[in-house]
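Sanity check

After download, print the first record. It should look like this:
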Amino acid sequence: MTLDHLENYLKNFEEINQSSIISGRSNLQNFRKKNWDRFVKTGIPVQRRGNERWKYTNLKPLLDSFKLPSEKNDESFRFFLGSNIPIVENQILIVLVNGKFSKILSSNFQNVKGVSLTTLNDSMFDIEQFYKNSKSNQDPFISLNYAFLNDVIKINIEKSNSHKVINVVNISVGDDSNKTINNPRVLILGEKEASFSLIETYIEISDSSSSHFSNCVTEIILEENSLLNHYRILLEQSNSFHIGNTRVYQFKGSELNSLSYSRSPQIGSNEIEVYLQGERSKCTVNGLYLTSGTQHMVNHISINHEKPNSESHQYFKGILSGKSRAIFSGKVFVEKDAQKTIADQKDLNLLLSRGAEIDTKPSLEIYADDVQCTHGATAGHVDEDTLFYLMSRGLDKKSATAILIKGFADEIINEILLDELKSFVQNDLGNILPELYFEG
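Expected structure tokens:
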């Protein structure tokens, strides 16, 4: 990858970094420059050969001329939010518009006992300390996110008598017919014995002539004996691009329950890496993804067991139609000292057409000798005998297929512990069920 291919990104970098010079934020300027240099070494990983991570995904559309969006903070978006995001009782609503915190659209975030919010513009924000807990990595999209950093949302959750619900909503808003890029960046710190739920919702406001590239990074740190129920809801449109990176670091006795629901954009990626860094830490990472037309969805889930007596579970389901394609890459890495590890992973896929394709690759890499680890994957079409049975009871083919699809999806959706969120996802699936049918 030469810099010629990155000319568009270079213009964006120079524009956003110039603002740091003007505002006197030299530390931010240096941080961006360091990550830009790291990004340039790889660029957008479009090569297929020797590129296992993106082997089955064509990222060349991301070389297009995406521009930084103009600043938007329109209170009229509030009506749009009311009908397009999950609303949970007493939730703390944090809204980002094109990656920047919107105070006028957010609510219930001030003076909440046990929860504190800071952003990049706050005087107490220390950019040097912000990433001290992060694993060093060379992921080009994370480096690009850091290089284009124009805001950061940092949320601390303390131990409390009540279970807090935080909904971080990322809105992508287009500029007429321009293609835009935004880079939301969120850090969540669950302090010792904290208990809370985090919903990440990704939506967009645009017309059919514009498209967006959302390059998102979320970092979650769970301190000793903390509990997080994490939900990632991807609802961006079919002509856009979404690269999502989530990093979770767990200390002793902490527990993560993560569930993602993804309606794929043109190219979508959901990458979750969990580092079980404390004894008796536990994580469950589940997901449901739907693709249609020529959409392309990637789920890359990596669980790293670093200490003894840790436990992890992965369970994903895909529903594919048209000529769409999905990739599931699930990995469990067990280090030498991580004895007594329990881990399992499973990926099941329902193919509704002969043109749909799934590449699934669960894998185990184990260096300890006292573990219980399993993995498996399947892909198949709607069972025609069951379909015939339902049709023999008076249902037409489309209705019968919808019942089977819903039954397949509900096993994941029923794991959502927030009733309002569960209803929201069920309604969203219900709205698209008429478009899904078995092309047998």
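If your output differs, re-run the checksum step. Summary of this record's structure: Residues 7-23 form the longest helix (17 residues).
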